[in-house]
Amino acid sequence: MRQRKLQSLYTGYLKNSEPTFKAIFEKNFSHSDFPLMEWDEDKEIKTLTYPEAKRRIKSFAYQLENIIQSKDQYVGLNLDNSPQWVIAFWAILMSGNKPYLINQRHPSQLTMSILDTLNVQYCVEVSPNKFHRKSITIADVFEDFDDNHIFHFANEIALSTSGTTLEEKICLYSGKEILAQLNNTNELLNISSEPKRMYHKTIKLLAFLPLYHIFGLIALYFWFTYFGYTLVLLKDYSPESILTTARKHEVTHIFAVPLLWHKIEENIKREVSSRGKEVEEKFYKGIKKINKIENFSLRLGKFIARHALKEVRNSLFGDSVQFCISGGSYIRKSTLELMSGIGYPLYNGYGTSEIGITSVELDKRPKYRLLGSIGKPFKSIEYKLIDGSLNVKGSSTCHSL
Predict the structure, then answer these.
(1) pLDDT for the residue numbered 11
(2) What is the mean pLDDT of the segment spanning 351-369?
């Protein structure tokens, strides 16, 4: 199994990159025969390697050029997390067009309104949609293409906000703005060694977050596949599937919204409470003690958690998880304390569709990390409080139509 350090890869992969999606693509898919994605299928672990994905992307881009026969159009990407999503995302850009990442949780009427605003004529998807657009079905079998064919990349993507207000909000990101997001990883890695911790000499990220959402797109996809690591796909989002997949694939990194972490806390509290008051008191005393120890030695605290709370860990994600991030909304302090005490270091971050991922609290010591802080803004970002509101500006935020 490979062993590659994130920090050592930074200089060659980011510092001299052109601010374009084409440059990002070439670096992203320059890795050797490593798995880009893996998933369960018919009780077997299937994989898609970076070279195979690159071949399929070029083949599909060639098909898109023949189908659309124009450039600089927005093309709807109507897929959930899958190998097809990655193939279609890059193929649309490679064909000279701009992907609009359709949020599959939006009401149909909101999606249709956004498609109208962007003048979307085509949608790439598994099966024909209800949005009254020309459907391009992406299949597992791709036609051959001329390997010498020259592609002319587009340099912009579009996505929408999570839609909690049901208002039409479209965010555009150029290659320059995405590269600025990627350059923030250098600061992240300099501040903390935690994001680059491996298990069995590799990093695997649980693909819990949808890739059409800013959190999933930046922190899950771009931050780590740029360095050649692996996304582990879920069969579904049931609690059993999430936990079983994490253990089976030995997932190392889990990024999720507070809802997941709150549910885990509630399930643990329910189970511990059912064991009786004496067991319950002993459990929470142990959690507090481990967090105190981690203020002086993170390694010792994790060691104690791994052995003293083995039963709890085995019922959750197992021993492979090294680094976790929560983001998207408020997370309870009790949740941070519990996850940390079990030995799953959980860090709190901040970002929105409009500004990307702007900060993460990376202090290893629980006495600071468990306060719920979102951390200091990355170098590409400036925070300013004005009349109680957080104002954000920087080179990595989106631009509008």
Answers:
(1) 45
(2) 93
Q: What is the C-alpha to C-alpha distance for residues 401 and 398, in angstroms, rounded to an integer?
A: 10
Beta carbons of 396 and 377 less than 8 angstroms apart: no
Strands 44-49 and 35-41: antiparallel
Contact 342, 309 (CB under 8 A): yes
Q: Rounded to the nearest 10 degrees, what angle do helices 83-94 and 50-68 cross at? A: 50
Cβ neighbours around 271 below 10 Å, total: 14
Residue entry with tokens 């929408």: 160
Report which of residues 282 and 32 the model is more confident about. 282
* E strand or H helix that includes residue 84: helix 83-94
- pLDDT band per the 50, 70, 90 thresholds, residue 6: low
136, β-bridge pairs? 124
Cα–Cα distance measured from residue 186 to residue 13, given in angstroms and rounded to the nearest whole number: 11
Residue 16 neighbours by CB distance under 10 Å = 9
* Alpha carbons within 13 A on the beta-carbon side of 140: 2
Residue 361 to residue 363: CA distance in whole angstroms? 6
Helix (H, G, I), strand (E, B) or coil at 203: coil
pLDDT digits (tens, 9 = 90+) for 232-246: 999 999 999 999 999
Contact 204, 383 (CB under 8 A): no
Tally Cβ neighbours within 10 Å of residue 307. 10
- Residue 220 backbone zone (phi > 0: left; psi -120 to 50: alpha; other: beta): alpha
What pTM did the predictor assign?
0.94
Beta carbons within 10 angstroms of residue 57's beta carbon: 23
399: β partners: 172
Q: Is 108 helix (H, G, I), strand (E, B) or coil?
A: helix
The DSSP secondary-structure symbol of 355 reads: T
Q: Residue with structure tokens 């190392």?
A: 252
Return the amino acid letter for 297.
S
Which residues make Cβ contacts (< 8 Å) with residue 122, sequence separation at least 6? 67, 68, 73, 75, 76, 133, 134, 135, 136
Report the chain's terminal Cα–Cα distance, integer Å. Answer: 45
